[in-house]
Amino acid sequence: MAFWQLTRLRVVFPVLLLFFLFVDGDLMAAMGGIFTAFPWHVLPVLTLIWLFYAIQFDAENEVPIWLYTIIIGVLFDMYYTGIFGTYTVAFLGAVGAMKQLHAYLDERLLSGMTLLLIGLVTYLLITYMAGFIIGIANVSLVSFFLYEVLPTLALNLTIAALGYYPVWSLFQFLR
Q1: How far apart are CA 17 and CA 50, in angstroms?
Q2: CA nearest to 50, candidates 175, 170, 152
Q3: How far apart are CA 56 and CA 167, in angstroms?
Q4: In terms of C-beta density within 10 A (0-12 exposed, 13-18 middle, 19 or more buried), how is residue 160 classed?
Q5: CB neighbours (10 Å) of residue 173?
Q6: Residue 103 contacts by C-beta under 8 Å, 6 or more apart in sequence?
Q7: Quick one: pLDDT at residue 61?
Q8: Distance of alpha carbon 102 from alpha carbon 52, whole angstroms
Q9: How far is CA 131 from each of CA 94, 146, 150, rounded to the nearest angstrom?
Q10: Which of 60, 86, 97, 100 could serve as 122's disulfide partner, Cβ 3.0–4.6 Å?
């Protein structure tokens, strides 16, 4: 096997991770009127979906998933919020939950969507709790689940399901 074959995933994965970091913000900027139409608040989290794909398709052996998670969390905090640590902890918590549960689930689509569902809920709960502690989240937990978590889950699970097999094929090609 040639050297370029060993490094393809190691190069493509972080480049696409950084790309999805900016696409998340661009989607919110371009479609903010739709995503935040009262009373709904939908968050596209393509960055977390890309990290989910790495866990689901066993890319941890080829890419340092924890390092990339920390780096992308810090960049997300610096670029989007200015509150250091919130999204870093949220990304770490979601990736940690998905990695722990991946041992019990297989690579089928429904198992993957369950894994992503748990990761997304973990991610959203951590950001809600951080906002509540800081004092910027002033909605009840029921409203949070009804108007932010459910629409966010619907959007992101749909995106992840549509991209599941194409991304699986990409990972197989890059290996």
Answers
A1: 7
A2: 170
A3: 11
A4: buried
A5: 10
A6: none
A7: 81
A8: 10
A9: 17, 17, 18
A10: 97
Distance CA(170)–CA(175), nearest Å, equals: 9
Instruction: Tell me whether residue 116 is exposed, middle or buried, using C-beta atoms within 10 angstroms of its C-beta: 0 to 12, 13 to 18, 19 or more.
Output: buried
What is the Cα–Cα distance from 174 to 9, expressed in whole angstroms?
5
Can you give the pLDDT at residue 6? 56
CA atoms within a 13 Å half-sphere pointing along the CA-CB vector of 115: 30
H or E segment and range at residue 166 = helix 150-174
Extract the tokens encoding 132.
């509540």
Among 42, 49, 25, 27, CA closest to 146:
42
Q: Give, rounded to a whole angstrom, the gap between the first and last alpha carbons of the chain.
A: 10
Residue 3 has what pLDDT?
52
12: Cβ–Cβ under 8 A, 6 or more apart, which residues? 174
The encoded tokens of residue 129 equal 């709790």
Q: Is the separation of the CB atoms in 56 and 101 below 8 Å? A: no
Burial per residue of 26-50, b for 16 or more beta-carbon CB atoms within 10 angstroms, e otherwise: ebeeeeeeebeeeeebbbbbbbbbb
pTM of the model: 0.92
Residue 120 near residue 94, CB atoms below 8 Å: yes
